[in-house]
Amino acid sequence: MARSKQKEKQIIDRIKEGRSRSETTDELAQLILSGNRSALARAITLIESTQEADLSKADALMRILLPHSGNSFRVGISGVPGAGKSTFIESFGLSMIQAGKKVAVLAVDPSSETGKGSILGDKTRMNELASNSNAFIRPSPSSGALGGVARKTREAIFLCESAGYDLILIETVGVGQSETAVHSMVDFFVLIALAGAGDELQGIKRGIMEMADLVVMNKADGDNLPRAKAARMDVQRALHFFPELPSGWIPEVTLASSLERTGLDAIADSMNRYQHHCKTNGYFDLHRKEQSRWWLKETIQHALVDLFFAQENIQTELAQREEQIIAQQQSVSEAARYLIDLFKGTGINPK
Amino acid sequence: MARSKQKEKQIIDRIKEGRSRSETTDELAQLILSGNRSALARAITLIESTQEADLSKADALMRILLPHSGNSFRVGISGVPGAGKSTFIESFGLSMIQAGKKVAVLAVDPSSETGKGSILGDKTRMNELASNSNAFIRPSPSSGALGGVARKTREAIFLCESAGYDLILIETVGVGQSETAVHSMVDFFVLIALAGAGDELQGIKRGIMEMADLVVMNKADGDNLPRAKAARMDVQRALHFFPELPSGWIPEVTLASSLERTGLDAIADSMNRYQHHCKTNGYFDLHRKEQSRWWLKETIQHALVDLFFAQENIQTELAQREEQIIAQQQSVSEAARYLIDLFKGTGINPK
């Protein structure tokens, strides 16, 4: 550790002295391994870049750092806007830092644009956590389709792990698709719910409830406590209607208050028991391998579809065929076969 | 109608007399339009064929018949094995025929193999319906991946419609993926559930409950009636935890007994109200157009992935890259980019 600190200093000094105009990939990797947060931030910017020149640098960096990744607990956090995700992440993150963890917070929000109030876009919402030296907070990549945004976030997880962060929290907006993407990169999925007046769980999108390993009834404080307790029972009953999770874990429901900072220990406890459960039955490693295979297939599939639809002649024909299908003049099979044949004939020459 | 019957007779006579060795595509189409069931069966066999020579014949047939398709109500029927789907379909189908409908029953069961007890494989399970002249029953295509099986079934729907069937029931096994495929080809989705001892809804796969427009608590008869009533309330309560359907329809739960043939009118009534609701708010047509677009995209995507993985050099490299990813030696991004570049270089030359 002392050696790596020394090395970090050497690299920083060298850069400051202007002996090298910019750090090499190897130097950047060394800084990250020594836990340097601004190097980590630069590395994430690098892997988020779509510039041709950055791609091979990013590949090289990942090759150095990947062997150092994997040693964290990856937690997805979802919930409708207003459920108090940010406040929850701040309280929970701080309590985990007190317990000795290094906490990184990432986000997947494909709709986000800088300055448009995206999740984590405004770090001031997590003031106390952001200023803690054992925390690292990074907003969602600000542009691109969900698949790309999520893939970058997944690689940011590996970077954070190689920088020594052992609890990674990935926040997501409660809008369905991004949940699926986040679910496929985490070990544990938390849904932050809110006990309101009667229809407390309205607004939670289809399919999200059944991904949850843990449902946190948030804002369980003051006048709201009885409602939160009732909602907890409702959710527990509802969870019976969801079949067993592939991990064999039985989802739990806890109460929490970010305001009073209560219920956080129960959440940490649930996560610990989950890890024990899944490491004992072998699901933990198996699941991560499955996730890697899934992401490879998913990434290839998206790239193929992009390649296909980038062909100009395909674009023109596609619109026409779609019209014909809707007008009941041609079958989907025929149209698809025609377009694929056209694609084969292009000799693939993406812009 | 008299004219088309006459034409049908002419065609059949011509074939019998040996003047033409086999019917032309146009003749086959005319027979189907006149409601000839064996012609319909032959046409479905044709569109299920993967023989190169049959593809253009199938395309030509679909081009003639598609303009005559669309005039039916398409209903997906799901439920765990043992829930009594076949018996339900027989009772319900017969009651709808009594009400003046022509009923076609199709199936999506990607795991089915002839003679292995697949759904609908054994027509004797629907003896009475099968022998009714206003019913047409067709088992699932017996081989192929889900996407292909489902696409063929979707095209079989159009053929049945052009033969005058105005209620199409599509049975599916309760195993998740095939439900999604069936859901994307029907107007209305029914889940057949069973009130058992305590954990009555166990076994219903993730995501299926929330697709349902109607949940039928089956075998609500004799000693089982109180349990069915209790389960109905449980399901109604659980449905509150699912957000609104895109159609704006509020899912219903009814009791039924195929044995006593009760509850069938309420189901028909629910379907009628659903149609009224969705035709009034415009969802019905919009949804069908969306389904067509979805199937085109889905079909292209599958064809691209098939094309990709059919390349021999890709197969070899893929296995190696997957190993490297799992061993944390390479990122998914790098591996995917490498494989796509390899694909571009092949000049695409599928087997």
Compact description:
Two copies of one chain form a homodimer. Chain A has helices at 2-16, 25-33, 37-48, 52-65, 85-98, 127-130, 146-162, 177-183, 225-239, 264-280, 283-309, 312-326, 332-345; strands at residues 73-78, 103-108, 135-137, 167-172, 188-194, 214-218, 252-255. Chain A is of the alpha/beta class and 351 residues long.
Which short descriptors sum up this protein?
seven-stranded parallel sheet; alpha/beta; 51% helix; Helix Hairpins; homodimer; Rossmann fold; 7 strands
Q: Could you describe the 3D structure shown?
A:
Two copies of one chain form a homodimer. With 351 residues, chain A is α/β, with parallel strands linked by helices. Chain A has three domains: 2-66, Single alpha-helices involved in coiled-coils or other helix-helix interfaces, CATH 1.20.5; 69-283, P-loop containing nucleotide triphosphate hydrolases (Rossmann fold); 291-344, Helix Hairpins. In chain A, 51% of the residues lie in helices and 11% in strands. A seven-stranded parallel beta sheet of chain A has the order 3-2-4-1-5-6-7, with helices on both faces. Chain A is globular. The termini of chain A are far apart. The interface between A and B is large, with 66 and 66 residues.
Order of helix and strand elements from N to C terminus of chain A: HHHHEHEHEHEHEEHEHHHH
Q: Give the largest interface pair and sizes.
A: A-B, 66 and 66 residues
CATH class of the largest domain in chain A: Alpha Beta
Portion in beta strands of chain A: 5-15%
Number of helices of chain A: 13
Task: Kindly state the percentage of residues in helix of chain A.
Answer: 40-55%
Q: Tell how many strands the DSSP assignment of chain A holds.
A: 7
In the predicted model, the low-confidence regions of chain A spanning at least 5 consecutive residues are 112-117
